[in-house]
């Protein structure tokens, strides 16, 4: 990966914007810094203002592991699209999310049976309907908390898909759409020429891996050297700079 704010990245960004793309962003770790308690996450005024200005010019989507209702109240504006639960909660297909939520009931039963033990270990269970998240960032002994999560969820059922993240284990139905399905579907739905997608975690990699060559993919953080993203930014603090650069390029006159 190359840093986006070098010559090749600047050229790729300008080329993508000329195609009138879908702009799609993860939330935690991309638009907002990672925080110890998920309920404390916020985006800065600079990011919110720039996102709102971009949404007035191009289709814009937030594609997040959070629920749609949760992230909507954290933005300060209303984007055209919000997809939650890593792609499983899509307001364009509401019946699908309900069916996926029902498919996770056996997992909920396991968690209820061990709820006290998980809580004692510092594991926080977040039920998002179409997905479940088991956070262990606040655990005093994170390795032991993760081992307990793995024990509770073992043996994994063929109907579930487990994947990690930043101090979290996620559970979704095996047949749930992922972020790649969501972004490709939104590009088709709005008739965009391509997508510009930024994300920071393992659940964003399917978008990076499936992106056609004319898409622009950006990993937030250089910690994952094997990411399939084309470019990276060092941290969410550079996201406001990216959004400002997009606005400048969109307002620039076309060269003859």
Give structural notes:
- The chain is globular.
- It is of the alpha/beta class and 256 residues long.
- The chain has 10 helices and 11 strands.
- The model has no long low-confidence stretch (mean pLDDT 93).
- It has helices spanning 7-18, 45-55, 68-72, 94-103, 105-113, 115-120, 142-152, 179-190, 205-210, 239-251; strands spanning 2-3, 22-25, 60-63, 81-83, 124-127, 132-135, 160-164, 168-173, 195-199, 216-220, 231-233.
- A hairpin with a 4-residue loop joins strand 5 and strand 6.
- Strands 1-11-10-9-2-3-4 form a 7-stranded parallel beta sheet, with helices on both faces.
- It has 2 domains: 2-90 and 177-250, Rossmann fold; 95-173, Alpha-Beta Plaits, CATH 3.30.70.1020.
- It starts with a strand and ends in a 5-residue tail after the last helix.
CATH architecture of the largest domain: 3-Layer(aba) Sandwich
Q: Tell me about the biggest sheet?
A: 7 strands, parallel
Shape: globular
Mean pLDDT metric: 93
Separation, N- and C-terminal Cα atoms: 31 Å
**Total number of helices:** 10
* Helix content bin: 25-40%
Q: Please report the first level of CATH classification, the CATH class of the largest domain.
A: Alpha Beta
